[in-house]
Amino acid sequence: MNKIKVLCLFALVFSATTFAQDTLQEVNLKANERSLKQLKKPAANTYVMTKKELLKAACCNLAESFDTNPVIDVAFADALTGARQIKMLGLTSPYLTITEENIPSVRGASQAFGLSFTPGTWIQSIQITKGAGSVVNGFESISGQINTELLKPFEAERFFVNFYGSSDARFELNTHISQTLSQRWKSLLLVHGNARLVQNDMNHDGFLDNPTGQQVNILNRYQYTNNEKGVVGFFTFRYLNDQKIAGQKDFRDHAGFLHDGAWGSEINTQRFDASTKVGYVFPDMPFQSIGFQNAFSYHNQEGFYGLNQYGISQTNFYSNLIFNSIISNTLNKFATGLSFNFDQYGETVRVPNFVANPHRIDTSVGAFFEYTYDNTDDFSVVAGARVDYHNRLGVFATPRLHARYNPWEGGTLRVSAGRGKRIANIFAENQQFLASNRIWNVASGNGEIYGLDPEIAWNYGFSYSQSFKLFKRSANIGADIYRTDFQQQVVIDPYRANELSVQMLQGDSFVNAVQLDFSINILTHLNLRTSYKYYDMKTDFASGANQRPLQAKHRFFVNGEFSTHEHENGSRWKFDATYNWLGSQVLPTTTDLPQRSAAFGTLNTQVTRVFSKVFEVYGGIENATNFRQPQVISGANDPFGNNFDASVVYGPVFGRMYYAGLRFKIN
Length: 667
What we know:
Elements: H1 2-15, H2 18-27, E1 36-38, E2 45-50, H3 51-54, E3 73-76, E4 84-88, E5 91-92, E6 96-100, E7 103-104, E8 123-130, E9 144-150, E10 159-166, E11 170-180, E12 185-196, E13 212-226, E14 231-247, E15 264-281, E16 289-305, E17 308-327, E18 329-351, E19 354-356, E20 359-374, E21 379-390, E22 394-405, E23 411-422, E24 439-442, E25 455-470, E26 473-488, E27 490-493, E28 499-504, E29 509-523, E30 526-541, E31 544-547, E32 554-563, E33 572-582, E34 600-610, E35 615-622, E36 657-666
Parallel strand pairs: 6-9, 24-28
Antiparallel strand pairs: 1-2, 2-8, 3-4, 4-5, 6-7, 8-9, 10-11, 10-36, 11-12, 12-13, 13-14, 14-15, 15-16, 16-17, 17-18, 18-19, 18-20, 20-21, 21-22, 22-23, 23-25, 25-26, 26-29, 27-28, 29-30, 30-31, 30-32, 32-33, 33-34, 34-35, 35-36
Helix pairs in contact: 1-2
């Protein structure tokens, strides 16, 4: 009975959703299972990236954790700051719900750089859900959800250290220390530091390919477990200080905007987080549990991009109370509860044609109910709805549905539908355009946020996967078809030279996303994973109907992994390679860039030598094909002129990059 209690507790506290509970039960995979797995049992279309997958590349932070993954698309947001932008089903991260242990994390002020604030070594696993997420996690999700599970004190090594260095002068140090405080209490201290110390300008345009700077990131968490009383709790505290300097090589001034006429950018961010999660399983009813999540964060970013100035602060408090139980029997389950969210924003905006210091407070209170039917064999459905009151958006409902059916052995069919609603923070979410001299024309309407209305969209999805034997080897094929329809959308039109039009959608906006997958276990320790994606994305911009820019219509992905047999002392070799091919992309209209990009491919490789169960070294090459976007900055010769624009980035800036590192751990 105690074991059942513990499993239910961990599913409650870590997942907070019924179908995510099934996901986490599946995470306990055997060592020879695949590192990226599409789960068979949940009603939602869910993938799990294990620690093994994260070690296949230089996953220095969460933003860099998806390079070996065909589910998420990764690209650079601009040519200067080094910020990476992720996309799912063709939509950027603001349309995703990104959570950390099911507590909202990357949102609001942290949209531009927040993915780089979670070091890769801190991550235990990542769950990716396509389509509208669970109503338990809020009303904002439109195209999917990414949930990161951090290391747990009772599961982490006693001591861990990771050194990393690369040819672009980026160096990192990660140290983890866990300590047993008592039979029921254990702590874990995670310390991360990174710095880029050398200026790089591989394309000789006078601008740094990557920003210099440093980051200090410290997290301390405590775990309490009482199996006899059915209680488990986590208490987490974090502090971050991140500094970036970008621009021309001659720029040095930390105190002002200009130095000898050089264009520069400086972005300094400080952040503090604190969260608690407590779960309780009723002793005589292991199917019934209650969980309570609370989180506080303060985020402050100050900086400038040449003559453009932008700063934002956000104070957030989030609370979620969840009750799980059954109706009559364990085939019928439900989750219900209440949630509260408070955001206080303060911004400083100084851009061409728009100067303001907008401040606002957003609060929302919501109630949700999610019903799950699962016959544990071939059919499950999760139907949920929530009703929220928002001080700016009023009262509104959010319905969502996920269903799974197994028509025959190895086959899994899924459908989903759901509605999402969100506030667009137009400056925080589009900081790449600050690295330009475009004139901002923000339409003045009757909306509550910058005069704009909230964004509303429906997402519909169909998915099928089939496992089978091919030449006596395990194989899998899959097909996903999703459509996102916007009823309301804040449209930023970059197609007019030297101008950026921001207004509400007047017409249609949709995204059709198709993905075809094939994977096979060629040999005992050799796996191959391939994927093809097709995106049909159209929006009625102010300048006319057009395909969304900087989005390849066709993408092709191949990943191969091979490892030698593991010896008794744990020693072995591991080899990984990932090839990404992107088709031609439409580029925003500028004075000296082409209207479309050329298709290109990149190859990343890594070799790991495991000497024992406590020590290993690794090395690799990113962008081994050495592809570089021919011109990444428009008007680089006159950075204070009207034509300067560093936001049109469709490919790598730096070129080929080598890296190496080591890991040492004591269990």
